């Protein structure tokens, strides 16, 4: 008889694990708290019919696992036509693209020459402060990283720096291309979900126990409380949610401590339809800070959409995203793009207030980075996935990487 595995969380991590295990002849049930799949990847259609991304958006040319998944699912990608790493600096002293590239190159070279102990005890803030950069260069570099990590940079381990390449996987390509899924990034999740027989939306899990068969899980659904028993479990929910699960018996201390040590960044996005077709652009406001961009759609034309992203508590306070009223940010977006006319209302999502993500994505201090090896340990028939358990954490690539790894563990350990 087929072993029955439950996957909790229908984001890219959980659905990748489900797809793999389904193909390996396991019986799969996916439980998802929201009434949609995709988790932190959430595509929407704006007033003018254009697709916009409210969560994970940029697919790097080096995101091999996302790109392979697109091929596997028969989905097409579109080159955005805008480089994530080349932004016109607005609301601050200009920093030409060549100087932006110099800062990245210098940080990579400096890191490569640093002693191991200095790297393992360093933070991104201190590292940037010691680089020989001009004041505008430093301000822009700092601002770009601070909003990307969504956390004060003195809390982020230097080992998490975008150019840190201990095993050559995380190298950065300054001139590389960026892609989006033509039909919206969420189609990856939807296509996998459509191929599975048993996906239960509106099912929020809160407790995990061990039983004779393997695992019991309990929670609440639209139809009331549920308790289910399976042979194995893959937990693929964001790290702050796992930290609140009640495990009976409790998780081994090293795993529990590793989970508890990870922080979540805070980030928000705003997106709005434009009346005419905008030109391609990537602008970075270093003062607030936030950045905004346009990009190509599947028909080869620029999508009639502009989207902006910001991160860190300080930036989001300035943009008043907590109020759920997009007025402050929309005004800044308009001032930054005086050539554009808008259609319909802007859509804003502040992920820090999201019950099922508790922030945007994982961020690792030095203490948390030291405990990374425990995050992928299984406990009996319980396995862990999610972007925070991946080498390429905080990305869609990491989510898929973790789902593939968890599925492999299940097939090796639960034959
Ligand atoms: C604003 C923003 C911008 C981003 N930009 C990029 C980008 O440009 N490029 C990039 O590569 N990545 C980006 N990311 C990161 C990327 O989206 C995530 O790393 C990735 O989607 C995480 O996938 P996951 O499956 O690990 O988690 P999730 O997508 O969070 O999936 C977990 C699922 O578990 C569900 N869940 C939670 N609690 C429970 C529960 N108790 N019971 C049942 N189900 C539960 C959730 O609803 C969710 O569906 C961005 C993220 C955000 C928020």
Report on the architecture of this protein.
The protein is of the alpha/beta class. It has three domains: 4-40 and 186-262 and 365-413, 3-Layer(bba) Sandwich (FAD/NAD(P)-binding domain), CATH 3.50.50.60; 43-83 and 176-185 and 266-353, Polyamine Oxidase, Chain A, domain 2 (Alpha-Beta Complex), CATH 3.90.660; 88-160, no CATH class. The protein is built from 13 helices and 22 strands. A six-stranded mixed beta sheet has the order 7-17-18-19-16-20. A five-stranded parallel beta sheet has the order 9-2-1-13-22, covered by helices on one side. A four-stranded mixed beta sheet has the order 12-11-10-14, with no helix packed on it. Strand 17 and strand 18 (290-293) form a beta hairpin. The mean pLDDT is 95. The structure holds flavin-adenine dinucleotide. Residues 8-14, 31-34, 39-41, 55-58, 204-205, 236-238, 241, 267, 269, 351, 356-357, 360-361, 386-387, 394-399 line the site of flavin-adenine dinucleotide.
């Amino acid at each position: 008889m087929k072993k029955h595995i439950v996957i909790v969380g229908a984001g890219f991590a959980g659905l990748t694990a489900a797809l793999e295990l389904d193909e390996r002849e396991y019986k799969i049930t996916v439980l998802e708290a929201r009434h949609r799949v995709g988790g932190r990847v959430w595509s929407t259609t704006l007033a003018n019919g254009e697709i916009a991304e409210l969560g994970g958006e940029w697919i790097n040319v080096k995101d091999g696992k996302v790109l392979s998944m697109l091929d596997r699912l028969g989905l097409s990608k579109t080159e955005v036509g805008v480089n994530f790493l080349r932004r016109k600096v607005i609301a601050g002293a200009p920093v030409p693209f060549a100087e932006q590239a110099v800062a990245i190159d210098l940080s990579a070279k400096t890191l490569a020459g640093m002693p191991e102990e200095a790297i393992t005890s360093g933070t991104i803030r201190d590292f940037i402060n010691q680089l020989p950069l001009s004041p505008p260069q430093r301000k822009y570099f700092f601002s770009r990283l601070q909003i990307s990590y969504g956390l004060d940079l003195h809390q982020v381990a230097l080992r998490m720096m975008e150019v840190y390449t201990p095993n050559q996987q995380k190298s950065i390509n300054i001139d590389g291309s960026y892609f989006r899924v033509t039909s919206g990034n969420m189609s990856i999740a939807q296509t996998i979900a459509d191929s599975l027989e048993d996906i239960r939306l509106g099912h929020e899990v809160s407790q995990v126990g061990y039983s004779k068969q393997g695992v019991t899980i309990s929670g609440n659904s639209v139809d009331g409380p549920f308790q289910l028993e399976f042979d194995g479990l893959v937990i693929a929910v964001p790290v702050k949610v796992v930290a609140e699960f009640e495990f009976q018996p409790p998780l081994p201390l090293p795993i529990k401590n590793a989970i508890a040590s990870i922080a979540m960044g805070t980030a928000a996005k705003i997106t709005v339809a434009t009346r005419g077709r905008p030109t391609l652009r990537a602008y970075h406001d270093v003062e607030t800070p936030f950045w905004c961009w346009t990009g190509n759609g599947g028909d080869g034309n620029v999508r009639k959409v502009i989207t902006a992203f910001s991160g860190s508590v300080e930036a989001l306070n300035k943009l008043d995203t907590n109020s759920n009223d997009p007025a402050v940010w929309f005004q800044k977006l308009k001032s930054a793009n005086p050539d554009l006319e808008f259609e319909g209302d802007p859509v804003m999502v502040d992920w820090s207030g999201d019950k099922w993500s508790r922030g945007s994505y994982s961020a690792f201090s030095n203490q948390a980075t030291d405990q990374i090896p425990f995050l992928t340990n299984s406990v009996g028939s319980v396995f862990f996935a999610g972007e925070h358990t991946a080498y390429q954490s905080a990305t869609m690539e990491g989510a898929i990487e973790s789902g593939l790894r968890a599925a492999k563990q299940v097939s090796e350990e639960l034959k």
